[in-house]
Amino acid sequence: METINLTIDNITEPYRLAVENHYESFILHRFNGDHKFANSLIGLFITIPVYWIVGTAYTFIDIYQWPKFILKYKIQMDKSQVNGKDLRRLVKQVLFNQILGISLGASFQWLQVNHILIPQSSTRIPTISRFITEWISFILIREVLFYYTHRLCHHGYLYRHIHKRHHEWQTPIALAAIYCHPIEHAIVNTFPVLIGPYLMQSHLLVSNLWLLYTVLLTLNDHCGYHFPWSLSPVFHDFHHLKFNVNYGILGILDWLHGTDKIFRKSKYFQNHRIYFGLTPPSDYSKMN
């Protein structure tokens, strides 16, 4: 395996160097070479417009039920109405949570680039084998932390006073992805995403790509539409439908702990896959 990794790294080294040179040039010309300032802001502020642009596009479809041909991909078709009062409350909460998330993320990155408490981030763009190793680590670390903190939030006091807010949207919409209590946003949503890159001492370009990826993934998980060629949001959509199932993201820990049994016995499980035609796996309107 080590030989294969070295071969791949040698082949891709010119591309790694090109990325590194372009990145350094960008930091030099846009931020006067101030890596600390640039790396603390770039990814964190890129994610905000992505969240609102993509989320608003989905919400436009939900509100106006247009274009009509897209509606056949709606998972919970009979519960898809969005009203102005709920949407205004959602926008206020999401904006607050984004400010909180930016503050936490910027604080972690500031500590990292200043070598305080947190291991120093790499100053070089990683090789392809290192990048793959880090990315897999991010995914697994997030899965473990998200599953257990999320499941904990479904118990007693924590559900009634904290997590219940997120489940006000039994039929999720993309903009509601981080509509939740601020405590939940910090512990369940933000911390599991941030901790991986810091433990792996990742280059901050990789960290920022990871932040962008997680924003797009959580928007997809909450969008309510199962489109062709895209990752299936059915797993998490079913969590919103039934509440006490499917606590994770990948489903590995749900399988291990048996918290996906209801899902696996449902018709929705048969549709939980990527498909490559224009026709959805099943007629969702007949399943609700």
UniProtKB/TrEMBL annotation:
Gene Ontology terms describing biological process = lipid biosynthetic process
**GO CC aspect terms:** membrane
Q: What is this protein called?
A: Fatty acid hydroxylase domain-containing protein
Q: Where are the transmembrane segments?
A: 41-64
Q: Which InterPro entries has this protein been placed in?
A: Fatty_acid_hydroxylase, Sterol_Desaturase_Related
Q: Which organism is it from?
A: Dermatophagoides farinae (American house dust mite)
State one Pfam family annotation.
FA_hydroxylase
**Residues of the Fatty acid hydroxylase domain:** 136-259
